[in-house]
Amino acid sequence: MAAQRSERLVNLVIALLVTDRPLTRAQLRDMIEDYRKVSEVAFQRSFERDKEELRRIGITVESVTLDTFFGDEVGYRIPRADVELPPVQFTQAEADALATAARVWRESVLDESSTSALVKLRAAGVEPDTEAGIATQVVTGADAPSFSDLWRATIDRSQVRFGYRGGKQRTVDPWRMALRRGRWYLVGRDVDLDEPRLFRLSRISSAVTTVGEPGTVTSPEPEVIASHLNRLEPPEPEEVDVTMAVAPGVRLGVMTTRTGWDGPVPEGYEVVTGGFGGYDEAATTVLRAGGRIVLLGPEKAREVLAERIQAVVRLEEDAS
């Protein structure tokens, strides 16, 4: 559909929606520029085609008689109920979930947005319970003072400049910010090098200044940005075989085969070997089983599991 026709259809819909009374063809022709520019015959053809096009996409233009004594005086309207979306309704549980999500963000920029969302909920007559829920917080990190400025520049699509790793100044077109394994990164075009770069926020050594006008940064397609962020992902782990003693009824979620084992195993447990996508995955499976799996080998798998358990112990000690 040509842009000019699309604009004309939008104007026709708006004209028929904003009025509380039906409009005649003459009134519509006077209100819509495209109709005014053509002859009466061309206008009549165009109007009929536009009505048909709107009907095809689900918008019905009704014709109604304006005067019961003069049936040839016809007006047009679009019933609002046919095109308006129903108001968004939240259950109390959904509102509380939104309030919990808003509480998660405590940093300045995100807190501003989440506070605005709660105000809108209350304006709509929904009173979320902001005290319910979890105590978890998502934080940008104390080592990322540049977060707020970069976040705004990314949203505003403004070019920025900052010192990086030793003070060398970088001028960057920011495309997107991303959190990977507890660290924030900025992906964008390094203007001086004229190539895409990833910047870890904790390595930014100066204040961030905006050097370009809002809206001047053009970002590539999301797939291109994702390909740069994928460089932060660890390589795919190799498939490993792990031997375990498994309690009755435990499902491992991987293919297993029964095997022999010379050492002791809990009574009733079955010894099997299963293939996992790395020792971390095997350790996660064992930990989730809550003691109903005994990891027997190989030794490397036992070391990874021991490191995971020791990390949990350290967290408990630090919290106490």
UniProtKB/TrEMBL annotation:
Which top-rank group of organisms is this from?
Bacteria
Looking up Pfam families in the UniProt record yields: WYL
Q: Where is the WYL domain?
A: 147-207
Q: Which PANTHER family match?
A: PROTEIN PAFB, PTHR34580
- According to UniProt, the name of this protein is WYL domain-containing protein
Q: Which organism is it from?
A: Cutibacterium equinum
Recite the lineage of the species: Bacteria, Bacillati, Actinomycetota, Actinomycetes, Propionibacteriales
